[in-house]
Design a protein that fits this description.
The chain is mostly helical and 163 residues long. It has a domain of 73 residues. The chain is elongated. The termini are far apart.
Length: 163
């Protein structure tokens, strides 16, 4: 019986020995393969071809300012105190923005750098100019032709508005 137990232990030891030999052989082969791979010269992979446009840095803002200064800028005027006055563009912008957006006169002071009183004066002056220029065409009594055009467009009569 002891023989049977002994032979079982021998078989077990033999099995462990075979496993260790195979494991050592496998790890040796794998280590050699990895070492061989690491020692091979690396061939750089070609980068994919990407066609990019060349970017030329152009200072668009400075170009605009130069163009404006060369052709459109007026010589700065000064008020009675000797301070530079607002440009015509600033004044027209203040008036048109007040009319377009219906805000307060000082609503644009941070954008246009113009005060409330000056903005109101600009808007009044602008409105008087528009009335003076377009009065004859647009601020007149309606003619019968105007009434006909309006009735045709709206599909109803104008009642007692002078027609």
């Amino acid at each position: 019986m002891s023989n049977a137990g002994g032979s079982g232990e021998d078989a077990e030891e033999e099995f462990e020995w075979q496993v260790l030999e195979e494991l050592e052989a496998y790890t040796t082969r794998e280590a050699e393969r990895l070492l061989e791979r690491a020692l091979q010269p690396r061939v750089p992979r070609p980068r994919p071809v990407v066609h990019r446009r060349a970017v030329t840095d152009r200072d668009h803002v400075a170009a605009h300012q130069r163009l404006y200064d060369d052709y459109f800028a007026e010589q700065p005027r000064h008020d009675v105190a000797g301070r530079p006055d607002h440009s015509a563009i600033q004044k027209c912008t203040a008036a048109i923005r007040q009319l377009a957006y219906g805000g307060a006169a000082d609503m644009w002071k941070d954008y246009i750098h113009i005060g409330e009183t000056t903005a109101l004066q600009c808007m009044k002056f602008f409105c008087h100019g528009v009335i003076k220029i377009f009065r004859d065409r647009y601020l007149r009594s309606l003619t019968p032709e105007d009434c006909q055009d309006l009735m045709r467009c709206t599909g109803r009569s104008m009642g007692s508005r002078g027609c």
